[in-house]
Amino acid sequence: MELVVLGSGTVAPSAHRTAPAHWVATGEVRLLLDCGAGMLHRAARHAVPWPDVTHVAVTHFHPDHWGELPMLLFALRWGTLPARSALLRVIGPVGLRTRMTVLAGALGDWVLEPGYPLQLAEIAAGESLDLSGDVRLEAWKTPHTDESLAYAVRDAHARLVYTGDTGPSDALARWARGCDLLLAECSLPDTQAIGIHLTPSQAGALAGAAAARRLVLTHFYPAIEGTDPASVAARAFGGEVLAANDGDRFTIGVD
Questions:
Q1: Pick from 14, 7, 3: nearest CA to 223
Q2: Do residues 55 and 91 touch, judged by C-beta distance below 8 A?
Q3: Residues 203, 230: contact at Cβ < 8 Å?
Q4: Beta carbons of 150 and 166 less than 8 angstroms apart
């Protein structure tokens, strides 16, 4: 399984971090975990084959986590030659279909009928979906918005857990237990802790409670720039911690 961090930032504008987007490739699956603004241009910059995307999984409906989805749908029809013909599956919390219908009303019928097969799937905490072959997507509730979810991508060799946006959660740690890589949001420094996001110490504690093999931090607000979140998280975790930048690549499931 390969992970490429396309967007390690937030809604706050940054010269070097775009909004949340993470590319996962395993087997025949090419999955975007969130689809924030700037994803397409970052994918092009870092040689990620975005036209090959098979699935998009949205964690919640804040615009920095799915604002580029209409652009992706449009680009797959008009930004590639030949035009796409393969199915695209878009997965999200309950409410996805309603919001996509509203988007189609505002932007045009092409949102739901983009010129290639499009399937919408809603998923709730505790549920899972077969993506392709032995690859599954699992969902769990996080304390951020009413609908917000964490996702796990599981294949025959590895389990990647992506927190999406979350505050501290013992239940999330239990659900993520034993994951090969925990991709955890790390929004703010410890001195600015709030209940709906994680600080470095909280992300490290989550990884420790989950007995994760590795911790990768993402979703950085400007307030955390200039600090060393990986070192702070490592003190709470006791294992390997990396602070992601846009374009970073990780291989999961190979010792």
A1: 14
A2: yes
A3: no
A4: yes
Q: What is the mean pLDDT of residues 41-51?
A: 98
Tokens of 216: 């990768």
Rounded Cα distance, 23 and 6, in Å: 7
Q: What's the CA gap between 9 and 218, in Å, rounded?
A: 7
| Cβ atoms 196, 16 nearer than 8 A | no
Q: What dihedral angle (degrees, nearest 10) is formed by the CA atoms of 161, 166, 168, 170?
A: -50
3-state secondary structure of 140: strand
Phi-psi region of 213 (alpha: psi -120 to 50; beta: other; left: phi over 0): alpha
Domains of the chain: 2-251 (3.60.15.10)
Residue pLDDT, tens place only, 153-207: 999 999 999 999 999 999 999 999 999 999 999 999 999 999 999 999 999 999 9
